[in-house]
Amino acid sequence: MPTLRIALAQDNPIVGDLDHNADLIRRAASAATVAGAHLLATGEQSLTGYPVEDLALRHSFVEASRDRLVRLAEEIAADGNGSLPVAVGYLDADGPVGSTTGHGIRNALALLQDGKVLFRYYKHHLPNYGVFDEDRWFVAGHELHLARIGGVDVAFTVCEDVWGGVPFTVAEEAGAGLVININASPYEQGKHERRLAVVKERAAGVGAPVAYLNTVGGQDDLVFDGGSMIVAADGSIISSARRFASELLVTDVECPAASRAIANHSSSLMSTSLHVLSEEPAAIETRIEPTFAPELGRHEEVWEALRLGLADYVNKNGFPSVLLGLSGGIDSAVTAVLARDAIGADRVHTVANPSQYSSQHSLDDAADLAERCGLHHVVEPIQPIVDAYLAEIAVSGLALENLQARVRGVIWMSLSNQHGHLVLAAGNKSEYAVGYSTLYGDSCGGFAPIKDVLKTLVYELANWRNEKARSLGETEPIPENIIMKPPSAELRPDQLDSDSLPDYAVLDGILVGYVDGDAGREDLVEQGYPADVVERIAGLVDRAEYKRRQSAPGTKITVKSFGRDRRLPITNHFRGK
Amino acid sequence: MPTLRIALAQDNPIVGDLDHNADLIRRAASAATVAGAHLLATGEQSLTGYPVEDLALRHSFVEASRDRLVRLAEEIAADGNGSLPVAVGYLDADGPVGSTTGHGIRNALALLQDGKVLFRYYKHHLPNYGVFDEDRWFVAGHELHLARIGGVDVAFTVCEDVWGGVPFTVAEEAGAGLVININASPYEQGKHERRLAVVKERAAGVGAPVAYLNTVGGQDDLVFDGGSMIVAADGSIISSARRFASELLVTDVECPAASRAIANHSSSLMSTSLHVLSEEPAAIETRIEPTFAPELGRHEEVWEALRLGLADYVNKNGFPSVLLGLSGGIDSAVTAVLARDAIGADRVHTVANPSQYSSQHSLDDAADLAERCGLHHVVEPIQPIVDAYLAEIAVSGLALENLQARVRGVIWMSLSNQHGHLVLAAGNKSEYAVGYSTLYGDSCGGFAPIKDVLKTLVYELANWRNEKARSLGETEPIPENIIMKPPSAELRPDQLDSDSLPDYAVLDGILVGYVDGDAGREDLVEQGYPADVVERIAGLVDRAEYKRRQSAPGTKITVKSFGRDRRLPITNHFRGK
Questions:
Q1: Is A414 helix (H, G, I), strand (E, B) or coil?
Q2: Residue B58: its chain A contacts at CB < 8 A?
């Protein structure tokens, strides 16, 4: 069998920043050429970033993407890498675009060589569920392209094509010896395992290796987790790239030789086109050893997703630093440590805002954590400000609890406006789900790192992060006292979360069924949860929709996180016409 | 030609409140029976409300919709109206639904008679643009149903079917003598005229009358504007219902008699089924005179949309009252008058929050408006509270401007929490578009009535509303001074909007092209706008995305209002399993 040296560029593009993304691709082409690769693939929409959302409906952006692709082909050739075939994901349309023409916008892959665009493939399966809205933005393609490279017929596909499967069936009919599948596949817990299973199934179906390339990096509430891999027809993993980090994965892959005549033919499902680049098997002087990425444990995987999502939100939006309120509780503690791991201690500012109901141990615990982590920490009491409000308006009960939270929020936002910090909201998924947060109070901020993390998982992450520090001989970042004490909002005397909510194990169990799943109230009672608790929690979830909608984006780690509130990507660097 | 007496129930259902909506349909059936109607049609998803959003993905909600439909058929018969055929819009699926089954969810129409469901039609064209996400929720149907009623073959279609047109082509091939089209069509400026044009085109194509029924009422940021109508094959309007109000439109309509044999046949586009209810032309003792709704001027139409959207948001969410800050400026003035028109003066509370930069004329103008309109008005100075913050933290410049706005926001939210008012945000589309509002300050609140109204239109509405009062011999609600003075945020000495923004006529012109349209920066310069102004405004719009995303819902009156931030409908009364 011929051997192809395949380079997969697992890169981190920025939505809308065409020049930055083109530079990433040029650098990958140079590195792949140095490595002696016969083919370089880059991620889904590697030139435009993903998801482009409503930018897809701007004719100026579609035109900019197409123009930039042509220039990129020329630049790669000018760099001396023209003979390397390079697969690039980008945004295209099946004709001229403009204010007056209809849509025919395509999620496209182009193969570049010798300064030219050899062909343009349009994604066949368009996902339109969960975070995906591709029926809204794109039109599906129906022509599969194969390139004969070193005597191997390589088929090119995009993301959902591997789940839907039609292009793989057609690739098998066309005698493909390798299928490239470029992705921008967002992270969810357990998804990497599902990907591996489907790639194995497709490789077996085609009877040839499948090269699965994923993007890496955070984009608003999505995080692409990398983990690119090449899987053989027998299901064995030939090589794999790291999760949550950029990497150029170069692998020598034995592929079935091209057997069919040079002629385009039509399947009943999609038409196919064959482009011959080189008939002779490529010469390889020294085989390179395949690399395999370490597998991550469940908690490390989640932590890395949250860390990368936060880091990229801060950096892609150009914030110099972050600020968050440090209450002495578990949520703000985990958020602060995540921030330090993401962008470094010197860019993390914390503030404690004690009221008359704050305990001394909370203040001490907050200061202890800030010191262990080397964060900039200040204390700003809120009681005099609360009293100034109370001199003006009569508030009591829940309204007074909310007032305290909002005074803190105003202080954080004022410091943000004055100094340029991004405010982080430290709320977790359990409390957002039932509405146990104050709108414009603790929920305010530009990013909510753990908004998709259930409270029970917050505790697990805290313990895992401390354990990791111990195993490295480092100081545990989170004081044990913060992990051990019972959770409280400290907005009235002796308040405990357990006064008004069931045990978090019970609450989270109900939320997994009712929010993440499709369980109705009766289903949950059948599962053994008390009917009155189910009724109350489901009612709270239904009523909390408005607050959830107004909360900040935060890294998504489950199938149904809250919010699909995009219209334009926030992290959007398009500066075109 | 036979004559059918058609009743169209232009009603205002509530999303998720199946019992309430079923009662509306029962009452319409009773009224239609009394009126001697031969057929009653109700709106798209009249049983479930529209749009149901993610409720469509809850098996318990789909099951509740199906069960309620069957009970509704029995109830209509028990009410003594069983012989009346009633078309009902609801949510269905093409098989059992449950946690483990795939989707086959349908946007459906059922024809009920004699306590039974005669047939179930599944909407053919599913819109998936703008506010519509129907490819996400539903699967398209491919079978058209006709009912022979009084010797006329009546075809039944749903909403987008009239725009896409395939079911109308099939209805023509099947010899339909009348086509019913039930809608939940949201308002946009100019849309009613486009509807009339397409209904005329379809009626001419089928060669028979088309009965276009629209829903009425506000649902979060959508407002359904009614305006149901029956249009003859020659394009003449046979009858029409009011805009923005419920109505049972009963009309005697001459329809071509059924001519084809009783047999189901297949078109190449959709299959068809014919259900025979009655062959003999219906007897009509006394023809009733058709009714025609008055046409609305442009400003009255927009005002009514905003008024109804606000009224239904307040009432469907169960708020006793609203509260808003009254600055003495034009935006809060128009918002306050809208609120009074929507829910009555006694439910409207206003508060003036002067700072050291507030002018006396602003305070006077606010008090004058409150008095003219009979609103509950109080004055709460903010300077002592601002000073309390400044004693704690050092803020200046823009941060200090934002601080003042946020202190006001906290006061409004505290009063809301204490007394149960819904806070209204008074921002307009021009300022939200460029980010000229304070996050968690003036932008806070549960509903933003004029968030989709450009500043120039805010002025036009103010003048129109005063003119309307004059024409009725009433006091002008808005003091002339509020309309005449130059706009200012009054957050620093002698501040004017024109210090930092171009004239609103120029700003709004750019926004119409750049936000509502697909104009790029170059297109706008070609249209004659100065390049530096275009560059600055487009940059502000791109950067303001985050704030827009966190702002309250507000009635949509243009093609592209901000925000498509729904996951579950906020106004959601589903209390099922």
A1: helix
A2: 518, 520
Alpha-carbon distance B235 to A324, whole Å?
Answer: 64
Per-residue pLDDT tens over the stretch B501-544: 999 999 999 999 988 888 888 899 999 999 999 999 998 988 88
Give strand pairing partners of A181: A157, A212
Q: Could you give the count of Cα atoms lying within 13 Å of A157 in the half-sphere of its Cβ?
A: 30
CB B223 within 8 A of CB B192: no
Helix, coil or strand: residue B349: strand
**Residue B263, Cβ neighbours under 10 Å: how many?**
7
Which stretches within A93-145 are classed as H helix? Answer: 134-137
All domains of chain B in start order, with CATH: 3-276 (3.60.110.10), 298-498 (3.40.50.620)
Residue with tokens 């597998």: A295
Q: Which candidate from B136, B550, B574 shows the least CB-CB separation from A128?
A: B136
Q: Give per-residue pLDDT as tens, A421-477.
A: 999 999 999 999 999 999 999 999 999 999 999 999 999 999 999 999 999 999 999
Residue A566 has pLDDT above 50, yes or no: no
Under the banding of pLDDT at 50, 70 and 90, the label for residue A153 is very high
pLDDT score, position A69: 98
As a whole number of angstroms, the distance between CA A32 and CA A86 comes to: 10
Of B417, B522, B569, the CB nearest to A577: B522
Chain B interface disruption, residue of A99, A137, A567, most B CBs within 10 A: A567
- Cβ-based neighbour number of residue B496 at 10 Å: 13
> Order of strands across the sheet with A105-113?
A116-122, A105-113, A86-93, A39-42, A3-10, A247-254
Structure tokens at B167: 């079911």
Closest chain A C-alpha to B196 CA, distance in angstroms:
22
Residue range A292-310, pLDDT digits in tens: 999 999 999 999 999 999 9
For residues A401 and A488, give the distance between their C-alpha atoms in angstroms, rounded to a whole number: 12
Residue with tokens 């599969």: A144
Reported in sequence order, the residue ranges of B195-329 that DSSP labels E, i.e. its strands, are: 210-214, 216-219, 222-225, 229-231, 237-240, 247-254, 271-276, 322-325
Cβ atoms within 10 A of the Cβ of B473, count?
A: 6
CB pairs A-B closer than 8 Å: 186
How far, in whole angstroms, is CA A113 from its chain's centroid?
Answer: 31
**Nearest neighbour of A60 by CB, restricted to B136, B402, B520:** B520
Tell me the pairing of strands A86-93 and A39-42.
Answer: parallel
Q: Looking at CA atoms only, how far is residue B35 from chain A in angstroms? A: 40
A498 labelled binding-site residue: no
- Least confident window among A168-177, B46-55, B315-324, B514-523: B514-523
Q: Which residue of chain A comes nearest to B563, CA vs CA? A: A567
Interface test with B, best of A129, A132, A389, A548 (most B CBs within 10 A): A389
Distance CA B409, CA B329 (A): 17
Residue of B nearest to A130 (CA): B136
- Enzyme catalytic residues of B: 44, 123, 159
Q: Least CB-CB distance to A414: which of B388, B395, B409?
A: B395
Count of CB atoms situated within 10 Å of the CB of B394: 10
Nearest to B482 by CA among B343, B316, B566, B364: B364
Residue whose tokens read 């005449």: B484
Nearest chain A residue (CA) to B133: A136
Q: Do B440 and A409 touch (CB under 8 A)?
A: yes
The nearest alpha carbon in chain B to A127 belongs to: B136
Asked if A424 contacts A322 with a C-beta cutoff of 8 angstroms, the reply is yes
CA A162 and chain centroid, separation: 19
Binding-site annotation: residue ranges of B: 129, 185, 191, 325-332, 402, 431, 547
Q: Do A385 and B389 touch (CB under 8 A)?
A: yes
Q: Which residues of B touch A521 (CB under 8 A)?
A: 60, 577
